[in-house]
Amino acid sequence: MKRKSRKPRKSKKQIEIKEIKLSTQIAQNDINYKVKHAREFIEANKHVKFKVVLKGRESQNSKAGLDVLFRVQTMMEDLANPEKEPKTEGRFVSWMFVPKAKEAPKNEKKAKENNPPFNHINLMKGENHAKNED
C-alpha cells in the first residue's frame, strides 16, 4: 500500500524556487549582479523569488522595498513574468517571477497554416500541375 501512494509523488513535477534577498539601500551595480544570477535561474526553468528586507523604520512604509522590486521587474521582463503583485509579509516585501512560456509551438502552428498539406484529391480530379515546356 505504501509503495502505491509513493508513485504519484514521484511523477509530480517539482518546482524549484530560488530566493534572492535584497536591501532597500542596495546599489544599482549590486542589483545588476543579483539579477544576472536570477536570469540564469530563469533560463534553467526555475522560479525566482526576490525578497527585500525592511529594517527599522522602513517596515512602517514598504514603498522603498516596492521601488527596488519594480527596478528588478524592468530588468527581468524579457525573460520572466511576475506571478502576482508584490506581497508585504512583515519585515519583507517579496515578488515571485516565473519563466515565460516557450514560443516555439506557436511558430510551428503558423508554419503549418502557411504550408497546407499536399492535397491528392485535386490531382485525382484531372488537374494538371505540370509546367508546359513549349
Automatic annotation (TrEMBL):
Transmembrane segments: none annotated. InterPro entries: T_IF-3_C_sf (IPR036788), Translation_initiation_fac_3 (IPR001288), Translation_initiation_fac_3_C (IPR019815). The keyword Protein biosynthesis applies. Residues 103-113 have a biased composition (Basic and acidic residues). GO terms for molecular function: ribosome binding; translation initiation factor activity. Coiled coil: none annotated. SUPFAM superfamilies: Translation initiation factor IF3, C-terminal domain. Residues 103-134 are annotated as: Disordered. One of its GO terms (cellular component) is membrane. Pfam families: IF3_C. Residues 15-100 form the Translation initiation factor 3 C-terminal domain. GO terms for biological process: ribosome disassembly. Keywords: Initiation factor, Protein biosynthesis. NCBIfam families: infC (TIGR00168). PANTHER family: TRANSLATION INITIATION FACTOR IF-3, TRANSLATION INITIATION FACTOR IF-3, MITOCHONDRIAL. Belongs to the IF-3 family. This is Translation initiation factor IF-3. It comes from Helicobacter pylori SouthAfrica50.
